[in-house]
Amino acid sequence: MSEVFRGVKGRDWVFAGVLTALGVVLMVADVGFSDAEVAGAIADGSMVHTVSSHSPWMIPLFACATIPVLWWRRGVIAVTGIAIVVMVLHDAIFGWVTRCGAGLPLVFVLAFLGAIAYERTKAWIVCALTALLSVVVLVFDATTGLSALGIALPINFIVFGIGRAARHRATLHQELSIRDAQLRQLRDERAALMVADDRARLSQQLDGLLQERLDQLTAAAESADGLAPAQAKALLESIESGSRQTLDDMREIVGLLRGGDVTLAPAPTVAHLDALLARGRAGGSRLTVTGNPRSLPATVELSAYRIVEHLVTALADRLDSPIDVAVRFEDDALEIRVNGPVDKGADVKAAVARAKERAKLLGGSVDVKVTRGRAGAVALLPLLG
Predict the structure, then answer these.
(1) Binning pLDDT at 50, 70 and 90, where does residue 264 land?
(2) Main-chain dihedrals φ then ψ at residue 290, nearest 5 degrees
(3) What is the DSSP string of 337-359?
(4) Which tens digit of pLDDT belongs to each residue from 309-346?
(5) Domain boundaries in the chain?
(6) What is the DSSP pairing of strand 286-291 with strand 324-329?
(7) Is domain 270-382 given the CATH code 3.30.565.10 in the classification?
(8) How far, CA to CA in Å, does 17 sit from each of 56, 108, 134?
C-alpha cells in the first residue's frame, strides 16, 4: 500500500478530495432530482435538457475520474486521459445529467497541474486534452449543454497560462538558487586559496630564515677553534642568543601558519556582521558583542564573518523570530553564538558543513543543535600567535 501512495503529498490529497467531494455532491443531486423538478427547471430556463438517468452508479463512476488526481506527479497526461475515458463512459451510460459543477473544476485543475509539471510540448498536450475533456463534460450536460463551452475554454486557457507563469517563476528561482550556491562555493574556494597561498609564502620565509640562521651558527661554531677560553665563552653566548632568536622567529611564523595575522584584505571582518544581519534580514535581528573587542588576525576575522554568513543563510527571516548573533572576545578564543528559526527550504546540513570547514582551517569548532524549528550554533575560533 505504501508503494501505491509513494510520492503523493498532502496538497495532492486536497486536490483529489475536493474534486471527488464536488463530484459526489453533484451526482447525489442528479440521483435525487425528480422528473417534476427537472421539468420545472427546463420551464424557467435553468436547465436545457431532461435528465436521462437517476442511477446511483453514476456516483462511483464519476469518482473514478477525480481520484486519479492523487497521482498527477507521476503523469498529468495519463491522469487527464483517464478522466476523458471515464467521462466518455459516463456520457454513454447515463446520458444527460449535470456534470459541469464538478467536471469543469477537474478540467481547470488538470490544466494548471499540466502547465507546471511539463516542459512546453507536453504542457500543450495537456492543454489540448483538457479542452477535449471540457467538450466531453458539457456535451451531455443537462444544465448547460455545449453553450457553456464559450466560457469554459477561455477559462481553461487562462488557468493554463497562470500555471506556465508559475512554472517559469519557480524555474527561475531554482536557477538563481543554484547560481547563488555556486558563487558561495567559488568565494569560499577563493578564500581558501588565498589562505593557502599565504601559508606557502610563510613556509618559504620560514625555510629561508632557518637556512640563513643555521649557516650563521655553523660559521660561528667553526670559528671557535683555537680561541682563548674567554673568547670561546663569548662566542658560545652569541650562538645561544642567536639560537633563541631563531626559535622566537620560528614560533612567530608557525603561529601565522596556524591562523595568525595574514594579509587577506580587502575582506569582511567581525565589524561587518552588523551590516550582514541588516541586509535582507528581519528588523529585529541583533548583534551582541562582549568581552574585550579588539582587532584580530585577518584569517580569524574573515573566518568569523564567513561562519556567521553560512549559518544565517539557513535561518528563516521572520519578524516574530529575529536572528540573534553574539560575539564574545576571550583572551585565547573568539566565541560566536547564532540562534534563530530554521528556514523550511534551507539546506541546514550544507550550511553547517561549510561553517565547520571554515572553522577547521583555524583549528576551531562549530556545534549546531536544531530543536522544534529553531537552530542554535556555537563556534569557537582559537587565537594563536
Answers:
(1) very low
(2) -130, 175
(3) EEEEEBPTT--HHHHHHHHHHHH
(4) 888 887 866 655 678 899 999 988 999 999 988 877 66
(5) 10-175, 182-257, 270-382
(6) parallel
(7) yes
(8) 20, 15, 20
Beta strand pairing call for 333-341 and 374-382: antiparallel
Question: Quick one: which of 253, 334, 265 has its CA closest to 293?
Answer: 334
Q: What is the mean pLDDT of the chain?
A: 84
**What strands, in cross-sheet order, belong to the sheet with 374-382?**
286-291, 324-329, 333-341, 374-382, 365-371
Q: Which of 225, 215, 221, 223 is nearest to 246 (CA)?
A: 215
**Residue 335 corresponds to which cell in the numbers above?**
566565541
pLDDT tens, residue by residue, 101-124? 999 999 999 999 999 999 889 999
Measured CA to CA, the distance from residue 383 to residue 31 in angstroms comes to 81
Q: What is each CA distance from 262 to 44, 45, 266, 294, 319, in whole angstroms?
A: 89, 87, 12, 16, 39
**pTM of the complete model:** 0.52
